Amino acid sequence: MPTAFFYHNDCLEHETGEDHPETPKRLEVILELLKLNEFKSLVLVEAQMADLSLLKLVHSKEYISDLYDHSPFTDLINLDADTVVSSGTLVAARRAVGAVCDAVDYVLDSSYRNAFCAVRPPGHHARYNMGMGFCIFNNIAVGAKYAQVFKKVERVAVIDFDVHHGNGTEELFSGDDNLFYASSHQFPAYPGTGGENNVAKNNLINVSLRPYSGSEAFRDAYEKKILPSLIKFNPELIMVSAGFDGHKDDPLCQLNLVVQDFNWVTKELTKVARQCCQSRLVSVLEGGYHLGALKDCVASHLSALLSDVD
Q: Most buried in the list 20, 42, 77, 307, measured by CB within 10 Å?
């Protein structure tokens, strides 16, 4: 079964202004990979627009209404110092959520072993009643709840290797023991959450890494803590918040990872998916702001997904 690649051109319509790191160019460099022979076997799927009812699985109706009330037709507006809304933002954000829910459908219906969602804006900082950290809707959290509510999946795991802690996802998962969230991230760093002593639940795992920790500390986090906890949780579906801003060239943090680290962690997660949940894995783009590094890291990630064969 091949790997599916979910995307829609609407995700390019989210404008963030000059000099903002979360730019449409991030998707443009990823789409260049589709021209390469090694990725010809990817099955390209055009993402549907998420219905507003799906957003309400994790976001308040007041927050959604406020976004539509204040969505500009021309000028950019800021939800906070980092998070921008433009005339194309809400369409892009709903396509991002739609891509994730579509991917959940595809892997659970066994059409595809795994899937990658090339989407923006990213999502893992978005909370119940607010966007933040470049994020509007929490794409992966909606996808996890969608799997529970509409696909009758009991246990869903999200693994987040973005360099920043996914505070929104952790917060949205905190009341449900059947949702597992594990994050490896630089600490201290934005958003200031994710210290290992901040949670005391078996289904919420934080491994904080000091700046310049590098490959060994990153891989140790998975081998010694995250992967054993994930296997113990025994998920029916694994989802990945795939942020590539831990790369040594990324301008926003200093975790000092290399391309091979993302290939390695992806392969480790596909092994667990094969063991626990019939290889069902959905990966969702989060961060990564050095365009060259992002392109190389996504290529490495996709290669690992494609290599998960019987």
A: 42
CATH architecture of 3-306: 3-Layer(aba) Sandwich (3.40)
User: Strand pairing partners for 158?
Assistant: 181, 239
- Global pTM? 0.97
Say which residues have a Cβ less than 8 Å from residue 154's Cβ, sequence separation at least 6.
148, 178, 236
How is 106-165 classified by DSSP, letter by letter?
HHHTTS-SEEEE--SS--TT-BTTB-BTTBSS-HHHHHHHHHHHHH----EEEEE-SSS-
Domain ranges in the chain are 3-306
CB within 8 A of 159, min separation 6: which ones? 182, 183, 226, 230, 238, 239, 240, 241, 269
pLDDT exceeds 60 at position 80: yes
Q: How far apart (Å, rounded) are the C-alpha atoms in residues 278 and 166?
A: 26
Q: What average pLDDT score do residues 248-253 get?
A: 98
Report the mean per-residue pLDDT for the chain.
96
